[in-house]
Amino acid sequence: MALRTGDHSQAATNGLKEKVLTLDTMNPCVQKVEYAVRGPIVLRALELEQELRQGVKKPFTEVIRANIGDAQAMGQTPITFLRQVLALCVHPDLLNSPDFPDDAKRRAERILQACGGHSLGAYSISSGTQLIREDVARYIERRDGGIPADPNNIFLSTGASDAIVTLLKLLVAGEGRTRTGVLIPIPQYPLYSAALAELNAVQVDYYLDEERAWALDVAELRRALLQARDHCRPRALCIINPGNPTGQVQTRECIEAVIRFAFEEGLFLLADEVYQDNVYAEGSQFYSFKKVLTEMGPPYTARQELASFHSVSKGYMGECGFRGGYVEVVNMDAAVQQQMQKLRSVRLCPPTPGQVLLDVAVSPPAPSDPSFAQFQAERRAVLAELAAKAKLTEQVFNEAPGIRCNPVQGAMYSFPRVQLPPRAVQRAQELGLAPDMFFCLRLLEETGICVVPGSGFGQREGTYHFRMTILPPMEKLRPLLETLSQFHAKFTREYS
Amino acid sequence: MALRTGDHSQAATNGLKEKVLTLDTMNPCVQKVEYAVRGPIVLRALELEQELRQGVKKPFTEVIRANIGDAQAMGQTPITFLRQVLALCVHPDLLNSPDFPDDAKRRAERILQACGGHSLGAYSISSGTQLIREDVARYIERRDGGIPADPNNIFLSTGASDAIVTLLKLLVAGEGRTRTGVLIPIPQYPLYSAALAELNAVQVDYYLDEERAWALDVAELRRALLQARDHCRPRALCIINPGNPTGQVQTRECIEAVIRFAFEEGLFLLADEVYQDNVYAEGSQFYSFKKVLTEMGPPYTARQELASFHSVSKGYMGECGFRGGYVEVVNMDAAVQQQMQKLRSVRLCPPTPGQVLLDVAVSPPAPSDPSFAQFQAERRAVLAELAAKAKLTEQVFNEAPGIRCNPVQGAMYSFPRVQLPPRAVQRAQELGLAPDMFFCLRLLEETGICVVPGSGFGQREGTYHFRMTILPPMEKLRPLLETLSQFHAKFTREYS
Ligand SMILES: Cc1ncc(COP(=O)(O)O)c(C=O)c1O
Ligand SMILES: Cc1ncc(COP(=O)(O)O)c(C=O)c1O
């Protein structure tokens, strides 16, 4: 021991010391993490913006960030009532101001009453303010046609991301062939692959069916599961509905089939339902996994374990920066739920402003409230514009040769398939890039349009896609879609 | 495989299915996590509050939560300027209101300019808004007498907790005897033990010296390190200064000795400096590890790896609920720092309101600003009252036989040692409780005072303590301290 200590001191004196924390010594799981939504293409976009600001000449005048589902960054205005209530909570002197409607004031007072020291500055209890969890429970009951929800099963979170990672964390166990496997859709939202890598769990891919508008097929689930059982212990199944990046909205029948499958195979269901308010296509409707599960009756109702996630980042709210969200757990083992509670208490509490926005979003003004009309009008306007942009996106892309886009039934993204000429694929390989990354980088450099290559979400071998949000304002979206289509045509010619 | 599937279905039909996620199958590391600050004693406090509300008769009329460092929950009023700026950012219509001072408006406009879509509702970049990191860097430079700070080394976080866990996560590697060991003080803030348990790293205890006002002694660090090297690979050293739960403020000489030790032994330094504004004792002063490290010159300055944490939850701000904080990394390997950036991007961004409060806290009004006088007065009042309460706590406890309390030089807690009679220890053991947990539970039941047993933070075998915050308002604190002292006397008589 003394010797080892001596060695160290020696090295120190000689100034030969290596860093303690290097790529060689750091957590190897963290190194495996990838997160395309903010990956190299976004770093390049940042650089380009800086160059533009410095006056460097480019073939475009602004970078358009269609890479991330961030509505307000793209110019969507916040819903007035949400911000009024929050401003009143932040600065209660405003409760005396004539500039705020009565219902916003009542709402803020009610929330502050429920906070420690009547202030947002106090930590809330770890699962989130009791009152707000009660409001969330009532929201879920309304949404699901009266099926009861228990506030004790609701945990508020720092965005949905935080809750998703917590559930995955609980599920991770075992080593080698008994390591926890988690089924995730391909294409997926890369939080899933990133969290599984970090937790050293096994990612089990099931493919959505592009030919059937990205439908989820139980036969494919079964294939993935059986194959995975050879090398890990699959214990959970993640579903994203409405889908990110794929924009599909699952049918009730599909959800029933998935629940039956999960039940038979002993899989914990993780239903990522953060886009539940974002359904645009005619004939499409959002069904929550909890509702379908409950209506299927025994043995599913009282047995199938489920966690459902929601967020203030999406929907008509688009309040990403506030990091509000929740998870409802259904049929979770009581002792495990206590462990979850304990685990969450270590981080103290979710941010209170996000809790406030969530509260308002789940209990919007009633018809008799002074803010009702404005709230409804603003909400409808946001959702109607998103629906129009979803339609436009599908339409313009499908007019372009070599681009094929499934209907954007919901969520905030299109995930069109692009044909890339073999010479482009070859060129990309020479550069050590995924072919669609090569395409997206070239697109960015020549048009300023920032989209994320399909390889960041996963796709069938040999197919190429990109994800583009439908969030740019209408007047920008059409030219954007056209520029993108034209760039694809030019790129195709260049490499033919 | 087919058979296994069949088995499952069979079990399903018979309704014999076990849950997927149970104590037996869940993440074993999560089960090992403990977090006393919100443990069983706090759950009991919640129950008692509910009983009081339901009219159940108790020997007290209210539960006093002296268990958690949550100033506003204990009635501290927020600093007006912080909340004004935040309200303006949340609801920019207020920029037209005559009720807000000009400097608050300018500040809010400046922050909004730096936000995506000029709104707090957009995700910020993952490391936090550039402008705010620049302001943090300037704050650090002022604090440290001009030593440069680089915004690129600053990562904003969801409270300091989030940043601390991130750093620990990066450091975790190895298995068996090569597992990462992390030295933490005993007594400690239990986030550290909880995070290490969750990450499956080895907790290496070094004891603070109660006889010397909880000073940190390098000989004890060395003892702990050498002993740990037999079974793990110690790679990091955590220091909490000013201390939680112990309230000591380290001397400059002590910090120098710690840095020399860390350097010689190849340890990454984690300096938890969230109480840097909370120094009360005459003769005590806060020195940041970064300042001391830099002033020590080579080889330390350009080599010793360090992360320093700060938070808006503590200081004079007490804005716990907003979850704002940051870490500055010093001499971190560039590739590791990129990995850290990537890891943090998966969670998208720290909550924007916490970022705003942090910005105001690190760049308060200047003497020429209209809000300067009020801001300074409010800040001083908070810190002066805390100082008075620190003094009072030490004084009253030390008048009580069987209680010994070190000076509360800084932070927000006293951690007095209590003598417990052997028969009380025995009784506790019969009940399966730590003796100080038994004491604290009885205290809670009979007086409504909620404090945390020393066993939740760690203490030398055979010694007993509790942690009590100094946060209750002055008019409550004195009777509280007296009630507690009297209860201890009574408890001692009862078991003698
Ligand atoms: C499918 C899905 N789940 C979860 C999230 C996480 O969102 P947040 O953490 O902002 O709530 C996102 C964000 O884009 C998402 O698309
Ligand atoms: C020593 C210490 N570090 C870190 C924290 C975390 O605080 P937060 O996450 O609220 O910034 C606390 C909270 O009490 C603390 O006492």
From TrEMBL, chains A, B:
Give this protein's Gene Ontology molecular function annotations: L-alanine:2-oxoglutarate aminotransferase activity; pyridoxal phosphate binding
Q: Which keywords does UniProt give here?
A: Acetylation, Aminotransferase, Cytoplasm, Phosphoprotein, Pyridoxal phosphate, Transferase
Q: Where's it found, cell-wise?
A: Cytoplasm
An example GO BP is: L-alanine catabolic process
Q: In which pathway does it act?
A: Amino-acid degradation; L-alanine degradation via transaminase pathway; pyruvate from L-alanine: step 1/1
Q: Which domain of life is it from?
A: Eukaryota
This protein's GO cellular component annotations are: cytoplasm; extracellular space
What's the catalysed reaction? L-alanine + 2-oxoglutarate = pyruvate + L-glutamate
Output the Pfam families linked to this UniProt entry: Aminotran_1_2
What the protein does?
Answer: Catalyzes the reversible transamination between alanine and 2-oxoglutarate to form pyruvate and glutamate. Participates in cellular nitrogen metabolism and also in liver gluconeogenesis starting with precursors transported from skeletal muscles.
Tell me the subunit arrangement.
Homodimer.
Which family, according to the similarity comment?
A: Belongs to the class-I pyridoxal-phosphate-dependent aminotransferase family. Alanine aminotransferase subfamily.
Would you tell me the protein name for this molecule?
A: Alanine aminotransferase 1
This protein's species is Monodon monoceros
Q: Which gene encodes it?
A: GPT
